[in-house]
């Protein structure tokens, strides 16, 4: 059934590349809300090396993942096979959000499509546990298509409107933890 791996080998990398959907789980250090988010859009997840992965974090109505990573770094990513071969892959590690103005951005950015509108950050995860399990209870499902709603929403916003959105909707988590920094004050 389940197996532990020291690194992301060619078979695991191929499995990851085939999945159109993955899930991200984070939680605050104490109390608060556990967050689980589905993530889609092909080519927005990258294997950086044998024990490092990253995904392009796009705009959202919240910033729980970023807030939790700022507080404690804990993160789990899960991939499920919905086709004929059952499998679940969980990647456990320590994550961090790399923002577009970070010195790391130019090195990480080329791992993702350049035409994705308005990325909010790149979430980088250093893996400390890689495990799979059977996935026997995961149903068969067929991908019909990706939704363009988030891309379209982002394209309708000006850069200034996106900045305002991030600073009003993504500054803190549900539990009040800091997520994205507010804009610098213009007061003297």
UniProtKB/TrEMBL annotation:
Pfam families, per the entry: PNPOx_N (PF01243)
Source organism per UniProt: Thermomonospora umbrina
Protein's UniProt name: Putative pyridoxine 5'-phosphate oxidase superfamily flavin-nucleotide-binding protein
Domain Pyridoxamine 5'-phosphate oxidase N-terminal: 9-132
UniProt-listed InterPro entries: Pyridox_Oxase_N, Split_barrel_FMN-bd
């Amino acid at each position: 059934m389940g197996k532990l791996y020291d690194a992301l080998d060619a078979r695991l990398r191929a499995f990851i590349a085939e999945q159109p959907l993955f899930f991200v789980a984070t939680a605050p250090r104490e109390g608060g809300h556990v967050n689980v988010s589905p993530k889609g859009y092909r080519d927005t997840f990258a294997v950086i090396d044998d024990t490092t992965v990253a995904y392009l974090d796009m705009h959202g109505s919240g910033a729980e993942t970023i807030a939790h990573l700022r507080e404690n770094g804990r993160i789990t990513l899960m991939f499920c096979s919905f086709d004929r071969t059952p499998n679940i892959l969980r990647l456990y590690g320590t994550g961090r959000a790399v923002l577009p103005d970070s010195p790391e951005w130019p090195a990480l950015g080329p791992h993702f499509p350049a035409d994705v509108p308005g990325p909010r950050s790149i979430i980088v995860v250093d893996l400390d546990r890689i495990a799979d399990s059977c996935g026997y209870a995961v149903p068969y499902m067929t991908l019909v298509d990706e939704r363009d709603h988030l891309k379209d929403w982002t394209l309708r916003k000006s850069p200034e409107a996106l900045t305002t959105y991030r600073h009003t909707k993504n500054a803190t988590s549900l539990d009040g933890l800091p997520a994205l920094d507010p804009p610098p004050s213009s007061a003297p």
